[in-house]
Amino acid sequence: MSESPQGDRIGDGRTPSPVFTDRQNNGKAHRFTDSASLESPAPAGRVALRIPADAGQLAMLRALAETIMLTADFTIDVVTDVRVALDEVATTLIAAAVPDASIECEFRFDEQRVRVRVGAVTGSDAGLIEHSFGWHFVETLTDSIAVSSAEFDVVQCGYPVVVELTRLRGEARPG
Fold first, then answer.
1. pLDDT tens, 83-92?
2. Residue 101 CB-density burial (10 A; 0-12 exposed, 13-18 middle, 19+ buried)
3. pTM
């Protein structure tokens, strides 16, 4: 496509919309507006990060989660739900983490949902998350949540614990 001189005319004093001619459309001009460029499908991707298992890092984790989700075109309601759920999960993992542990967090998103996987090495494999009030709170914010724990890891001196949660794109939830 090549730019037409029509795109340079201001006429009524407003900023012009670009006009392009399309050789595959017999040279007829097509006008692309801002709304046309915004009608693309939601992006898909994967972002992973690691932070020290320290309560002082929670603000950084929340900010990164929000930025990732907003960049991936999730609604503010979904962003808020995931950020709050992630904060609860990360806080619980940090409280149970062995010294010098890290919180590993991965976001996978597509046109339908976001999947968040959060893991840390903890001092116990007891159901530290499933039996808490926070667990029930996270269940109300997400569409699914699961916890898995591995056998004691002698190298890391603890139990690797992973929490996976999913939140669908879409309308705000009732409640």
1. 999 999 999 9
2. buried
3. 0.72
